[in-house]
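Much of what follows relies on a compact textual record of a protein's fold. With that in mind, consider the following protein and its fold in C-alpha cell form.
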Amino acid sequence: MGKVTVLDHPLIQHKLTLLRRKDTTSMAFRQLLTEITMLMGYEITRDLPLEEAPIQTPLGFMKGAILSGKKIALVPVLRAGLGMVDGLLNLIPGARVGHMGLYRDPKTLKPVEYYCKMPKDLEERDIIILDPMLATGGSLDATIQSLKDRGAKSIRCLCLIGAPEGIKKVQDSHPDVDIYLAAIDEGLDENSYILPGIGDAGDRIFGTK
C-alpha cells in the first residue's frame, strides 16, 4: 500500500492556517500556496539521488555532491494545480511540466479528460502530480491512470488537504502511489467539498469566486 504522509512542519502548518482563512485575498492565497508547496517540495525530495562532484572552491579542491540527473515531471491537475507549480519549479527548475485537464460529467459524475499534454519520456521520469484538494479522489485517480496508460512508472501525489474518502479511493486503486499532504480534514459535505477545507481552491487562486 502506498504511503500517506502528512508533512507537519511548523511553517507548513502556520501558512496553511493563514491560507484557510475566509478573508485571505487571492493575492495572499497564491503567495501562501506557492510557499507551502515549496516547503512541502523540500520534504518530498529528500530521496533524490546524489552523485560525487569534484569542484574547486576559492581556497582549494573538494568532492561535493550534486543531483545525479534524475528526471522529474510536474503534472498539475487543471486548474487549481497550476497554483502549485511555481513553488516546485523554484526548487527544481529543470523539471518538465505536463498538464492534465478533467471535468466531471454531470450525468455519470465521473471525471472526463479534456486536455493532456505531457513530456514524451514519462516512463523515464519521477512524476509529481499537483492538486491542492484531494476530495472524492476521482480526479486524482483518473490522472494517475491516464499517466500509467502513457507509460509512467514512478508517480507520487502532492496535495494540500485530503479527505479520508478520497485518500482511500486513491490507495485502493493505486497502491503503488505515495500521497503527501499538509493536512487530512474531517470529510466531505453533501456537495463533496472538504470540511473544514479551504473552499474552492481554483476560485480562490484566480479570484473567480
Observations:
- The chain has a mean pLDDT of 94.
